[in-house]
């Protein structure tokens, strides 16, 4: 399992537009990628321009395949999200380690 953490700098006046586009993109990914395990978008309380998203995937290959498949997320929707964010996201990929929390 991996987590992909995306980071955007979004004009605060376009935050709602960005969040709405992110929801639509996520819906498309969930419908088209069985190895996508959901995501959450976060807005910084310290810097109103900073948005993060954390997406969970079964593995790196599934994530890469989704990025190369042009039919999963319509290009106009990707462009709408990028326009609201002022450009593409930076991202970093992490391996998910076992959860050792006691339940």
Automatic annotation (TrEMBL):
UniProt cross-references to InterPro entries, sorted A to Z: ABM_dom, Dimeric_a/b-barrel
Top-level taxon of origin: Bacteria
Keyword Oxidoreductase: yes
GO molecular function: monooxygenase activity
Keyword set, alphabetical order: Monooxygenase, Oxidoreductase
Pfam families, per database record: ABM
UniProt domain ABM: residue ranges: 1-70
Name by which UniProt lists this protein: Antibiotic biosynthesis monooxygenase
């Amino acid at each position: 399992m991996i987590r992909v953490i995306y980071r955007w700098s979004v004009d605060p006046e376009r935050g709602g537009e960005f969040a709405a586009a992110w929801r639509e993109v996520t819906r498309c990914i969930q419908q088209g990628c069985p190895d996508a395990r959901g995501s959450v978008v976060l807005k910084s309380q310290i810097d109103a321009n900073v948005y993060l998203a954390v997406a969970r995937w079964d593995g790196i290959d599934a994530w890469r395949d989704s990025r190369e498949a042009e039919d999963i997320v319509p290009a106009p929707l990707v462009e709408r999200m990028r326009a609201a964010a002022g450009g593409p996201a930076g991202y970093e990929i992490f391996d998910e380690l076992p959860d050792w929390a006691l339940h």
